[in-house]
Amino acid sequence: MFEFSLMGQRLGGPSGISELMDDLGHALAQGGAEVKMLGGGQPAHIPAMDDRWASRFREMLENREEFDKAVGNYDPPRGNPAFIAALAAMLRRECGWDVGPENIAITAGGQTAFFFLFHLLGGEMPDGTRKKILLPLVPEYIGYANQSVRDDLFHAHLPRIEFTGEHEFKYRVDFDTLEVGDDIAAICVSRPTNPTGNVLTDEEIARLADLAKAHNIPLIIDNAYGAPFPNIIFTNATPVWHENMILTLSLSKIGLPGTRTGIVVAHPQVAAAIANMSAIVGLANPNVGQAMVRPMLESGEILQLSNEVVRPFYIEKSRYAQQCVHETFGDRFDYYIHRSEGALFLWLWFPDLPISSKELYQRLKKRGVLIISGHYFFFGLDDSVDWPHRHQCLRMTFTMSSDVVAEGIRVIGEEVARAHAEAGKRETP
Ligand SMILES: Cc1ncc(COP(=O)(O)O)c(C=O)c1O
After folding, report:
1. Confidence grade of residue 40 (pLDDT, cut at 50, 70, 90)
2. Residue 429 above 60 pLDDT?
3. Which residue from 129, 203, 232, 270 lies 20 to 30 Å from 221 (Cα-Cα)?
4. Closest ligand 1 atom, CA of 41?
5. Residue 421 C-alpha to ligand 1 middle, in angstroms?
6. How far apart are CA 193 and CA 139, in angstroms?
7. How close is the Cα of 117 to the center of ligand 1, in Å?
8. For the segment 110-136, what is each residue's pLDDT rounded down to a tens digit?
9. Which residues on adjacent β-strands are paired with residue 105?
10. Residue ranges of the alpha helices (H) in 154-225?
11. In 230-388, where does DSSP find H-type helix?
12. 347 strand-pairing partners
């Protein structure tokens, strides 16, 4: 009926992520309880965490002033001053970072923080040149892919594959071929990485930080799953921040995705710009998550819950899913799991997969098992890059109940074996 602008068409039109979420949502609605949902990024409802959120909410209701302020006030666009002060103090205390309130800005979820950051730094520059965000290692978080208001904003770099076990591998940044050109505005990584559960090593982070510094650009680290909270990280990785880095955190994966609370820790110039963007786009940010969590930052309870409840819960979920994969797949076909170092997912690689991962996704969907085809996570690459690996992987979430995870993995094994059997028949005259 109406004509949409170019930006309107980009943001208001279909995108990989919206089609995917729609597909998952509809399949779930139609399939009811029969669907094995291993596709989404929904954190688990951990009973002890849900109980704590409920009791904290009751505390707020009992202290009416706290509740009235949380739901009845606009906060400043930068975020709630008491929450920001408590967070800065906690980061100074726990991580030893030189962080003050001037380094912090709140956003409506980490996703919004990325939309702001990518457009703050990338795109058309005052001198007319265009700058991009360098993803030094893909596969990378699909939620970044369609965030550009104009043409493609990303320049992605393929990883090196390191075999770390009989059925295990790990992506490493390929520094031998990584180049930072004049057209790069920032380097960005998620750590732990969605979709793979990779945790870039301290050495990789140090090298990326050095590269960024040498080019006078920031290194953005998406810490949605990282330390100090929610600490869904299973290896010994040191959390790092200094003013040449932009670190994002979120209250989602500790169990409060509905409160839409994202956090940017950055140079004061960047934090102030994010606050200004919040004012323009949304006036203020959601208050409730900040109000709930502030006293838990002050007391250190948030760290205790992360370390003693959330982290062990997901370590066990990951261990169980890996055990199911090994027991179910056996030696029927070749497979590898990306080393599970954090986040909520297993990333499976089938090197000889005779069909594409997209076709495998379709076949699994027909059987009531929802995963995400790996090819979606390889964005920002030149069209000329032809790497079969892109079509041989899938992401499965391991946060569901043991029954769902085990049954889903059983069906994945069956469908991969079936694809191999079909290909074998085709090849035998
Ligand atoms: C790597 C990563 N970054 C950012 C986000 C955004 O999360 P939120 O907007 O809920 O904070 C997600 C959500 O799944 C994620 O996986």
Report:
1. confident
2. no
3. 129
4. 14
5. 38
6. 9
7. 14
8. 999 999 999 999 999 999 999 999 999
9. 264
10. 202-214
11. 268-282, 288-299, 301-305, 311-329, 357-366
12. 395
